[in-house]
Amino acid sequence: MLYYLFQYLHKTFNFPGAGMFQYISFRAALAVIISLTISLLFGKSLINYLRRKQVGETVRDLGLEGQKEKEGTPTMGGLIILGAILVPTLLFSKLDNIYILLMLFTTVWLGMIGFLDDYIKVFKKDKKGLAGKFKILGQILCGVVIGLTMYFHPAIVIREKFPEAKGQPINGVTLFERSSNHLSKFSPIAKKSTKTTIPFFKNNEFDYSKLISFMGKGSKQWEWLVFTLVVILIITAISNGANLTDGIDGLATGTSAIIGATLGILAWVSGNIVFADYLNIMYLPDTGELTIFVSAFVGACVGFLWYNTYPAQVFMGDTGSLAIGGIIATFAILIRKELLIPILCGIFIVENLSVVMQVYYFKYTRIRFGEGRRIFKMSPLHHHYQIMGYKEPKIVQRFFIIGIMLAVLTIITLKIR
For 248-305, what is each residue's pLDDT tens digit? Predict the structure, then answer.
């Protein structure tokens, strides 16, 4: 909203400083500041309100150290994160940008599903919350909207580099250094595509349509279905992975902030033709605007961590965790970097897999040996380390270190091919 106001003031009255709003970097910085401010200033007020309304967490007794002390800690704190994301995004981004609109939809939609789950648990006194099938259905519907919009919306396009512009350095000087006209290296025609970035390969692009190429000429008409199914799978997996990671104080929040900062860098380079040229990646027009959104996202997570770090004063609940996972997945898909998720979101995926492995191995051994056996002392994985005697802060800090390592690895995959 403010973007349009200051653009008007700049063009009409040449208002001093109004022209700064045309720069993504300036608006991204403002988004971080405002999201942090909202989290820090309004977070305490919301926590006190939740306490007055007795919106406390009911902790299931798992025999973990310090678990009972968390009984009654306010939950549904994800509302802090959602507010701190939405307000700066609405203020500083271009609201006619289709990428921003899709991120706003994902945030609100999955936030509503998580809120409904928390509401049932807290106010209806039903520990199960929203039935799992309805959660999955909500995630699937989110994936359908994102997938179909990306495939059919005319503004979601890519511009690829000409093959001859992807060469190696010539006489010690790269094509990037020799040319001042980066536009000349990319196709002048923006096109619809189901291509994405695949790490560690020189020609690092993969087209989802190849998954059904065996169908021959008729495969083209089913591209949209394959692409949408992939989107659904990724959003569902990462949203649930973030939900499972939200088990000890600060873990999901801090990990998400690291992931968000990395996605911001990837969005920046993908939406900037100079960096896209240098890194030999596809140029995605208008995705640079997503930097505003992800800056607000990182600021919101860091601000919430102020209250969520050990010992937590508030839990985000499903209101926050489902939305955070969906935001990360959708963002990666929009900037065509979703195949980097196994690296970047390694913690979410390992947490998710630890639960799946534990459940299926227990069922298998019960059938095979007559008694269920476990791979981990408890799942998700962070509880395994708790039972081993590690304190919560130590587990969280070590997961953060791993998260930073994975983030760095994700970024350098742009050059390691």
Answer: 889 999 999 999 999 999 999 998 888 888 888 888 999 999 999 999 999 999 999 9
Whole-structure pTM value: 0.91
CB 30 within 8 A of CB 296: no
Q: Could you tell me if 382 and 250 are in contact, meaning their C-beta atoms sit under 8 angstroms apart?
A: no
* Counted domains in the chain: 1
SS (HEC) of the chain: CHHHHHHHHHHHHCCCCHHHHHCHHHHHHHHHHHHHHHHHHHHHHHHHHHHHCCCECCCCCCCCCCCHHHCCCECCCHHHHHHHHHHHHHHHCCCCCHHHHHHHHHHHHHHHHHHHHHHHHHHCCCCCCCCHHHHHHHHHHHHHHHHHHHHHCCCCCEECECHHHHCCCECCECHHHHCCCHHHHECCCCECCCEEECCCCCCCEEEHHHHHHHHHHHHHHHHHHHHHHHHHHHHHHHHHHHHHHCCCCCHHHHHHHHHHHHHHHHHHHHCCHHHHHHHCCCECCCHHHHHHHHHHHHHHHHHHHHHHCCCCCCCCHHHHHHHHHHHHHHHHHHCCCHHHHHHHCHHHHHHHHHHHHHHHHHHHHHHHHCCCCCCCCCCCHHHHHHHCCCCHHHHHHHHHHHHHHHHHHHHHCCCCC
Residue 167: which domain range?
Answer: 26-343
- For the cut 50, the answer to whether the pLDDT of residue 177 exceeds it is no
| Least confident stretch, 91-105, 204-218, 254-268, 289-303 | 204-218
Residue 389 lies in a domain: no
Question: In this structure, is residue 233 part of a structural domain?
Answer: yes
Tell me, yes or no, whether 153 lies in a domain. yes
pLDDT the model gives residue 176:
46
Here the tokens at position 255 are: 């990990």
Residue that the structure tokens 């304190």 belong to = 391
Two tokens at 224? 């949209």
What is the rounded average pLDDT for all residues in the chain? 87
User: 197: which strand partners?
Assistant: 205
Residue 326 located in a structural domain: yes
